[in-house]
Amino acid sequence: MKILVTGVAGFIGFHLANRLLAQGNEVYGVDDLNDYYDVSLKQARLQQLLPQSNFTFKYLDISDRFLVAELFSANHFDVTIHLAAQAGVRYSLQNPHAYVDSNLVGFTNILEGCRHSQIEHLIFASSSSVYGKNTKVPFAVTDNVDRPVSLYAATKKANELMAHAYSHLYQIPITGLRFFTVYGPWGRPDMAYFKFTKAIAEGKAIDVYNYGKMERDFTYIDDVVEAIARIIPSKPSNSNSEPPYKIYNLGNNQPIELERFIATIESLMGKSARKNLLPMQPGDVVSTYADMQELNTNFDFQPSTSISLGLEKFVTWYRQYYQIASKTLIALD
């Protein structure tokens, strides 16, 4: 199977590409390696993928519609897994145009590519942030998601609507996944667990928002990849006059208090954190909690990695990576 993975140098894209290659698939990865966070980390992920014989990488900005159209016309992909996006809730307050370019324009280009190449299955990344100000927990895919509290969340809700329209108009089988705070080795430096670990290692204070009174449904990367691997061959079908389109939550179904989360990292690092207790930040929500019933029913999937084990694996990677990380960069051509 030939699979296109956008955002392949990103956290989830990297891990997923490794899994797909190990299964014997041909993976064509694209990424623009933007500098939203440390580009050398993205380069280091690519260094793990490039030597594998069934992997092809192309430097590409998905907001360039002509390059995306050329990508699809020059290749026959069986499946597209669209993970490329401008991430981050707080950054959307600083640079909103980056979210429009990548998450709206870029996603339109991917949809058009899938449409014209008659893709067999498109899987795309949505986010738990679409639940916004919802107070009913756990969050279910049937809940109303019309109250986003950040532009990032609004673009992800827009992605779901756009995908539904294309699925309806052109009968493209499309699956959207609402990710809930994915973490693990090779993760994103802008995420709280990464920032906390780095600050504790360097003896610096950590910023703790809403005075620590927050919960997150932390989802370990291996569980996320396992779920996607199960979903790939099972494209949605038309049912009751509805298009071949499905949305699933992909979380851990077990929210963790931020104070407990920090204490676990402190224990693993063998150091206490100095905490700056701060009020809630614009765009944040107090709690996330995924209802996983539909994903469990349809794919017999249940996350299996505890927060203590997942954080232990991350901290082990963090210590190793920042001691031996190669400084060699990959030429962008």
Please characterize this protein's 3D structure.
This protein is globular. It is 41% helix and 17% strand. By secondary structure, the protein is an alpha/beta fold. The protein contains 11 helices and 13 strands.
Observed structural traits:
disordered C terminus, alpha/beta, 333 residues, 13 strands, 7-stranded parallel beta sheet, two-stranded parallel sheet
Brief sketch in words of this structure:
This protein is an alpha/beta fold.
Total E-strand runs: 13
Number of helices: 11
Globally, the shape reads: globular
Query: Helix coverage percent of residues?
Result: 40-55%
Q: Overall mean pLDDT score?
A: 93
What structural category arises from helix and sheet content? alpha/beta
Rg, please?
Answer: 19 Å
In whole angstroms, the N-to-C terminal distance is 26 Å
Neighbour order of strands in the largest sheet:
3-2-1-4-5-6-11
Order of helices and strands: EHEHEHEHHEHEEHEEEHEEHEHH
Q: How much of the sequence is in beta strands?
A: 15-25%
Q: Are there runs of 5+ residues with pLDDT below 50, and where?
A: 324-333
For the sheet with most strands, the description reads:
7 strands, parallel
Summarize the topology.
Layout: E1 2-6, H1 11-22, E2 26-31, H2 39-49, E3 55-59, H3 65-74, E4 79-82, H4 91-94, H5 96-117, E5 121-127, H6 151-170, E6 174-179, E7 182-183, H7 192-202, E8 205-209, E9 215-216, E10 219-220, H8 221-231, E11 245-250, E12 256-257, H9 258-269, E13 274-278, H10 293-299, H11 307-324
